[in-house]
Amino acid sequence: MNAEDVFKAIEEIEFSEFVKPLRASLAEFKKKNAGKKGGAVEGNEAKKKRKIEDSSAENGTKTKQKKQDNDKEEEQEEEGEEEDNHESA
């Protein structure tokens, strides 16, 4: 649905006297907000990009932390196995 659909419906229900002022108001609104839409889109894209970068950095930190934790666990298991080997010898 767009503005033309609304204007057509207004005419069909016999309120055609409102169509001309509404068209003028719509044109004025579009003219005033023409620059804002482009800026808003660019702003949203920048926010999305920042959010993705932040998320990636955060996930990278978590992944790095998990790897360090796994490495520690493996070292502890190896130390435990070495102790078992010394005890049985």
Beta-strand residue fraction: under 5%
Number of domains: 1
End-to-end separation: 84 Å
Helix fraction bin: over 70%
How many helices? The count is 2
Report the principal-axis shape: rod-shaped
CA gyration radius, whole angstroms: 33 Å
What do the pLDDT scores average to?
Answer: 77
Secondary-structure-based class equals mainly alpha
Give, in order, the helices and strands: HH
Using DSSP, what is the number of strands?
0
Largest beta-sheet details: none
Uncertain runs are: none
Keywords: Nucleus
InterPro entries: DNA_Pol-Epsilon_Subunit, Histone-fold
Protein name: Calcium-binding protein CML48
Subcellular location: Nucleus
Task: Write a brief structural summary.
With 89 residues, this protein is an all-alpha fold. It is 90% helix and 0% strand.
